[in-house]
Design brief:
This protein has 139 residues and is α/β, with parallel strands linked by helices. The protein has one domain: Rossmann fold. A three-stranded parallel sheet has the order 1-2-3, sandwiched between helices.
Length: 139
């Protein structure tokens, strides 16, 4: 995690919250929360939280993860919840649904990359200027 440019946390939503396995990981990391022994390498990190559930209720699981990331000092956290109205298993989803989810996930990750890079550029690259003009990123 300390060497990664982007942290990706993916979790299904169980009983409106994140899984026990994800919670165990987050609990293990709390020794590095701001109030304990923070690692300053986390302060420049970006993270994306991907959740999926049968239906639209994603917020509880996302909040569990986002709260821990905030206390770890992660500077940017984006959330993407994917409602699976067809089925709970990736292999049982239609090709169209899998393609839609993949496209949304790729766009969200790419957006975070452009946003982070654009804040460091002067002048902006042509790609980052395009994303800014489209309103997809902000400075």
């Amino acid at each position: 995690m300390l060497e990664a440019d982007l942290l990706v946390f993916a979790s299904p939503v169980y009983t409106l919250r994140t899984t026990a396995a994800m919670k165990a990981l987050l609990d293990h990391l709390c020794v590095h929360w701001m109030v304990h022994r923070p690692d300053d390498r986390m302060f420049q990190k970006k993270a994306v939280i991907l959740t999926n559930a049968i239906g639209w209720i994603q917020g509880g699981a996302q909040k569990d993860i986002a709260t821990s990331l905030k206390w770890l000092g992660v500077s940017q956290v984006k959330k993407l919840g994917i409602p699976l109205m067809e089925d709970a298993f990736w292999t049982k989803l239609s090709a169209g649904k899998r393609q839609s989810i993949g496209g949304k996930t790729l766009f969200a990750i790419t957006k975070m990359m452009h946003q982070g890079r654009a804040r460091k550029e002067s002048p902006l690259s042509a790609d980052n200027q395009y994303w800014l003009d489209k309103g997809w990123i902000k400075l």
